[in-house]
Design goal:
single chain; alpha+beta; seven-stranded antiparallel sheet; two-stranded antiparallel sheet; 4 helices; about 15% helix
Length: about 200
């Protein structure tokens, strides 16, 4: 079975891509409005792409009615945001922040999520997240006028203490239980893991 991308509608292309590019990491992004309202929203068209400088990218499309999402409006205005990763204890709260909230209602306040000050940006972070990356906007790329690719430079990291071996610079995988996005309302756990021996390459 095959398709030419040009033969599919936008919705059909979305369904093909999100059905097979699995699982996807979730950027749980906090930003602040001009009125000081803290917004939190999840995005699964997301990943990190570089370590020097540390760059991540989040794709933010418009709402179905054409309105600009609060996250994009806030980032365009302030040029900074915080990206969090989500684990199992926070998964339901993360999902709930994907609901439709008016700009004057902040998801963290409405859902009782604890905020903490960031170190280098004005945007607060979600205090209970296993990992948070304070970001400044590195580049915005417009896609067809209805979507923005937000590239952020990570300038400060926060890690939940029990998840990190500071000496080895490694995560304690037995303690870290991230959640991945599948499609629609489906998510996945990541505890069923496979370890392979080092790849041997071509033998002489």
């Amino acid at each position: 079975m095959e398709y030419a991308a040009s033969d599919l509608t936008q919705r059909e292309r979305y369904k093909v891509l999100t059905s097979f590019v699995l699982p996807r990491p979730i950027a749980w992004v906090t930003s602040v409005s001009a009125d000081g309202v803290v917004n939190a929203a999840p995005f699964s068209f997301f990943n990190v792409f570089c370590e020097d400088p540390p760059l991540c990218m989040v794709a933010v499309n418009r709402r179905p009615d054409g309105r600009e999402k609060d996250t994009l409006a806030n980032i365009q205005r302030a040029g900074e945001f915080v990206v969090h990763l989500t684990d199992e204890p926070l998964a339901r709260a993360m999902h709930e922040t994907s609901g439709d909230f008016p700009p004057e209602i902040g998801e963290p306040a409405h859902l009782g999520l604890t905020l903490a000050p960031s170190s280098k940006v004005a945007v607060p972070r979600l205090a209970d997240a296993p990992f948070a990356m304070e970001c400044r906007t590195w580049k915005l790329i417009d896609v067809n006028g209805d979507r923005q690719l937000i590239m952020g430079e990570g300038i400060h990291f926060h890690i939940r203490d029990e998840l990190w071996d500071r000496e080895a610079m490694r995560v304690h995988m037995d303690r870290y239980h991230p959640i991945g996005r599948m499609f629609a309302d489906r998510y996945c756990r990541t505890d069923d893991r496979v370890v392979f021996p080092p790849a041997e390459g071509a033998k002489k």
